[in-house]
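Example for tutorial group B:
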């Protein structure tokens, strides 16, 4: 299941009272997503590259009857990967950042001090960042090549997606395994 939305402040205001959005967030670990929104997505250094860009939140069933998520964000054309190095040098932002190689992709391990958890972030390509609290999920993402994969999702037409606040994509072949998780 993939939840797609545009990173605009108004969207967060609109969905703040929505049961659908809250239910998706609860399944996807609301506290983790809120910390990422505050510490990374709305970080003053990064927000200008992420504002108005699409964010995709995909849920992945894991061992132990749990669910982890993958957050994938498009970034503006002005974004340069060395911006993340500048973020690394910021003080008192609640983040400890180290570089890492994840399946041949340049990446970062970001320790969020308020959650006491590691978030793995990779520069998937020039204009896409992907991250997860699960090293297994981010490794699979780094290895994934869309050119070799079967199409599991159908894109919405521009007309349909431009008139919606958010889109939900469901891969019905794996939905049963996802609904069995907590």
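The residue assignment follows.
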């Amino acid at each position: 299941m993939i939840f797609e939305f545009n990173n605009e402040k108004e969207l967060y205001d609109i969905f703040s009272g929505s049961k659908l959005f809250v239910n998706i967030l609860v399944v996807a670990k609301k506290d983790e997503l809120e910390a990422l929104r505050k510490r990374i997505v709305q970080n003053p250094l990064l927000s200008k590259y992420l504002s108005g860009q699409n964010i995709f939140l995909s849920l992945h069933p894991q061992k132990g009857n749990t669910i982890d998520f993958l957050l994938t964000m498009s970034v503006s054309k002005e974004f340069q990967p060395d911006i993340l190095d500048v973020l690394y040098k910021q003080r008192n932002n609640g983040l400890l950042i180290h570089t890492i190689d994840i399946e041949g992709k340049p990446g970062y391990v970001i320790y969020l001090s308020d959650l006491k958890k590691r978030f793995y972030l990779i520069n998937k390509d020039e204009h896409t960042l992907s991250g997860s609290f699960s090293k297994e999920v981010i490794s699979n993402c780094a290895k994934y090549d869309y050119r070799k994969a079967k199409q599991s999702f159908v894109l919405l037409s521009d007309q349909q997606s431009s008139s919606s606040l958010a889109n939900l994509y469901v891969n019905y072949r794996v939905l049963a395994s996802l609904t069995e998780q907590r």
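The mean pLDDT is 76. Compare this with the pattern of hydrophobic and polar residues in the output above.
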